[in-house]
């Protein structure tokens, strides 16, 4: 099962993050360019309702205050539909949007190199994008392993202009 990582070629740092516009609800779409000027954390994950994904998203929900200290916005992305995301957000009490990369299936994940075509789901991939829409940090985890938020927090802390680098941690 872990062999998929050898075929995943996620976008690396110092590449402009591909813009996208994905549904957050049946009548609301969110675009990456809306967050220009602030860091964005993209959390690509395989599926709502799976145990590892649930744990991963709950961790990001728990560290949201720390992420907000860095003025970072979190966006979860999977190929599940908006109705699944709405129910999942309510059940897990998530305080950040889950975006549906449903149709065409995985199109945005494919742009980021974060799509597992053999399984038809997003890879478990993380991206930190700086305020200029450049990928600052990226990481892909094996499907069954929760990567946690430490790498994201370290990346935000080391980003030029971050609170930690300005000495106001």
Can you describe this structure?
The protein is α/β, with parallel strands linked by helices. It has one domain: Glutaredoxin (3-Layer(aba) Sandwich), CATH 3.40.30. The protein is built from five helices and nine strands; from the N terminus they run βββααβαβαββββα. Strands 5-4-3-8-9 form a five-stranded mixed β-sheet. A two-stranded antiparallel ribbon has the order 1-2. A hairpin with a 2-residue loop joins strand 1 and strand 2. The longest helix has 12 residues. The radius of gyration is 15 Å and the shape is globular. The N and C termini lie far apart (40 Å). The N terminus and C terminus are likely disordered.
Broad shape: globular
Radius of gyration: 15 Å
Structural class: alpha/beta
Can you count the helices?
Answer: 5
Task: For this entry, give a set of tags.
alpha/beta; disordered C terminus; globular; 169 residues; Glutaredoxin; five-stranded mixed β-sheet; disordered N terminus
Task: Characterize this entry briefly.
The protein is 25% helix and 24% strand. It is an alpha/beta fold and 169 residues long. It starts with 20 loop residues before the first strand and ends in an 11-residue tail after the last helix.
């Amino acid at each position: 099962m872990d062999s998929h990582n050898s075929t995943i070629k996620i976008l690396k740092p110092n590449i402009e993050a591909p813009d996208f516009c994905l549904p957050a609800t049946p009548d609301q779409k969110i675009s990456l360019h809306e967050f220009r000027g602030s860091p964005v954390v993209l959390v690509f994950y395989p599926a709502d309702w799976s145990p590892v994904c649930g744990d991963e998203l709950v961790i990001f929900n728990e560290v949201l205050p720390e992420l907000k200290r860095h003025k970072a916005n979190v966006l979860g992305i999977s190929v599940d539909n908006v109705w699944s995301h709405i129910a999942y957000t309510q059940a897990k009490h998530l305080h950040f949007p889950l975006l549906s990369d449903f149709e065409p299936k995985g199109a945005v994940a494919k742009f980021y190199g974060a799509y597992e075509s053999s399984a038809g789901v997003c890879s478990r991939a993380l991206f930190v994008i700086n305020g200029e829409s450049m990928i600052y940090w990226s990481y892909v985890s094996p499907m069954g392993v929760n990567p946690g938020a430490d790498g994201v927090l370290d990346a935000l802390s080391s980003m030029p202009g971050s609170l930690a680098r300005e000495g106001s941690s």
